[in-house]
Every structure is written in C-alpha cells, then in structure tokens.
Amino acid sequence: MTHHYSEDDLTLYYYGEGRRRASIERHLGSCAACASLYREIAGTLAIIAAPEAPERGDQYGLEVWQRIRHKLPEQEGPAWARHWAGLFRHDRFAFAAAAAMLVLLAFVAGRVWPRQPVGTPAPGTAQIAGGGAGADVGHRILLTSVADHLDRSERVLTDIMNAPARGDISSAQRWADDLLDTSRLYRQDAMEAGEQSVAAVLDELERSLLEIVNSPSKISTADLEQIRRRIDAAALLFKVRVMSDELRQRESSPGGALPRTSTRKTT
Amino acid sequence: MDATEAAAVLARARQGDSEAFRALVERHSRSVFRLAFRMTGNEQDAEDVVQESFLRAYRQLGRFESRANFGTWLYRIVANCSVDLMRSKQARHDQVRGDSLDEAVELPATDTPGPERMAHSAEIERRVQAALNGLSPLERAAFTLRHYEGRSIDEIGTTLGLGTSAAKHSVFRAVRKLRVALAPLRSQES
C-alpha cells in the first residue's frame, strides 16, 4: 500500500521544517498524488507575498516618542516589590497583607536565627558533604538551576496576579504545567541535599502551580481571586524572589554552595 | 550605538530614565512598525500596535532580564500586542470579518478583473488580504511569523507563548483556511 504524506507534512516541508525532508523529497518524485497536493500548497503560499509596509522616515522614531511621552505609565518594579506594594494599596487585601507580614517576619527570623554548626551536616547531606570539590560543584549547579526555576515560576505567578478578570489563563497554565514536573524533581534534590528551606518553598510553589494548572482556562473572577488570595496568604511571590536572590548570592560566594543545615521551615 | 552604549542606555531606561527610553524608541520604531504592519495588515492598526508596544515595554522594563536581547524581547511584545489588538477588533467586528471571508471564498473563478477595473496584482493582494482577515488572530500571527518573518515553529511558540504543538497547529490551520479561500484565485492563475 502506498503511503501518502499529509497536508501538514507537506506544509512543513514547504517551509523547510520537519524531520522527514529527505524521504518526502524522494516520495514527491514518485507519487503523483502527493506531488499534486504539494504543488497546490506551494502554489497557494507563493501567491501570498509579504505586504510592503508603508515607508516611515528617519524622524519616525521621534514622532512615536512625541506620541507616547506623555502617556508613559509607571514602571513596574521587580515583581516582588510590585506585589508587596499592591498588598497595601488595596483595602480588600488588608487582611491578607497583615497575615503576609506575620509570615514574612517568621521567614526573616528563620533566615537570621543561629544555625547549627557547619560541621554538623543535616540529614541527607552526608553524601554530598563527603564528596569534596565534585559535590560542591554539583551543589552549585543545583542552586543555579533552582534559582532559574524560581525566576521562571515568579513570572507565571506574576502573570496570574495581573491576569484580567474572566480572562484566558491558558498560556500561564501551560507554562505552570511545564514548571510543575521540574519543581517536583528540584524539591526531591533539595531534600536529598539537605536544603530544607529550599524544599519548603518549592513545596508551596508546587501547590500554587497545581492549582493554576487545574483551574479552567476561562477562569471565573471568583476562582482567580481565590488563587490570588492563596498566593497572597503564603507570601509566595516574596518568598520565591528572596529565595532566588539568596541562592544566587550563595552560588557566587566562596563556600556558599554548602547546604543549609537548618531544617527550620521558611513559614 | 555600539553594544556597550546600548547596554548602558538600556540600564538607564530600566531605572526609569525617560530620555534613555526615548533613545530606545527612536532606535526601534521603524522595525516595530514593519512587524506590526505585517501582523495586522493595516496601517492604522500598526500605528496603534507601535504605541501600545512601547508603552507596554516601558511598563515592563523591570521584568526584562539584562542578559537577554532587548530587540528580541520587544519583538515578542509587538507580536503579542498585535494579537491582542486583532482579538479586540475581532470581538467588536466579528460580523464584518465574517463578511470579508465569505467574499474571499465565494468570488467566482471567472471573475477576473479587466485592466479597466483594476490591476490584476492589486486584485490578488485584495483577495489575499481578505483571506488573511478570515484567520483567527492567533492563526494570523503564527502564519505571519512563519511565512513573512521566516521564524521556525519553535521560535513562533516562544514568541507567542505557545507550546511547539500549538504553534505548529496554528500554522497548519491558517494554511488550510488560506488554501480554501484562495482556491478560486489559484484556478485563475493556472
């Protein structure tokens, strides 16, 4: 039986993409039906020439600037600052802000509280701590990867916090879905490396990502508000940001890659 | 403006220096307009997209990662502003858009305009434009990026915030619709 290529295969072939280009090329030489379909697709696409954009002069940039200069909005600061400021700007978030402040104080206290002596490894870190330079490199890689992951997650959370009511959150959901699996793996790695506070933040992050993924794409105002409240209540954006900054500082400081020995949770 | 100078201007713009942002606007406006025109197919819409894109870029400069390329970041903003504008236009003028698609599909194959009515190439352009207007905003954006801009499927996905599969299928749906809409034109050509 002769195998024919689909219109989609031939479209990709026309654009120089797809994995079976060589076999499609051979096939088109011997299959009249596919060759005809390909000619039809190529003929249609060849008709569609790029439109000539009207010319814009050298002063166009200046004209654009004159049009927008009085409309420039306030710049958004870093996401965590934006979010934090927002908490206090709206009365409706007053309760959440108060709760978040308590959580924040506990978080900061957890960071500055005297830790166990460095010589006492946390459970699960013996293997890495005993691995010498190689383990240190491995640990730095973990810190860098988790920091990148937290940055990406922060952007998804920010998108959700800024999503319009009754909007479509499907692109944020796809992104959250991609991050979810990675987050689980990093959390396990962090646990094994004795990074309890990192694992705790990742655990909270996972719960929010899961909630985003499992919500309807055309989300109702109430559902969106509920997700936002949970993110607020956990001060999640703030924690993600602080943890990311801390990991980046540790990865660049001598000996900073050593695992945190405190098992105190960040909440 | 060399790379070091461009980085310094960008850093100042990120700190809220509007004069530095002005330099970025002046540098990128023409390329932003070209892309916006290709995406929307309409001069006035393209101007709206240019304006909205720079305002959005200014607002979001804090999110821009300094190690990324500003042009690439701005390109994404322009593409997405174009999609947003087409979506809002579609919502307002759904009926009008439907009419123009119907027109493109239903024009009889024998309706070749004579030289006295219109140049043949102008007629082709008009029908192509009508066919493009029959695409959904996302299909049109994905098709524009693939066909006019020469972007790969992966790049289209990144630009529009889609997965590779969704980007690919947006292009496929666009091509299928265009084949149907432009079939009469092709039969005239052959």
Structure, described:
The complex is a heterodimer of chains A (267) and B (190). With 267 residues, chain A is mainly α. Chain A folds into two domains: 41 residues, no CATH class; 174 residues. Helix content of chain A is 67%, strand content 0%. Chain A has twelve helices and no strands. Chain A is extended, with a radius of gyration of 26 Å. The longest helix of chain B has 26 residues. Chain B is elongated. With 190 residues, chain B is mainly α. Chain B has two domains: 92 residues, RNA polymerase sigma factor, region 2, helix turn helix motif (Rna Polymerase Sigma Factor, Chain: A, Orthogonal Bundle); 98 residues, Arc Repressor Mutant, subunit A (Orthogonal Bundle). At the A-B interface, helix 1, helix 3, helix 4 and helix 9 of A face helix 2, helix 3, helix 6, helix 7 and helix 9 of B.
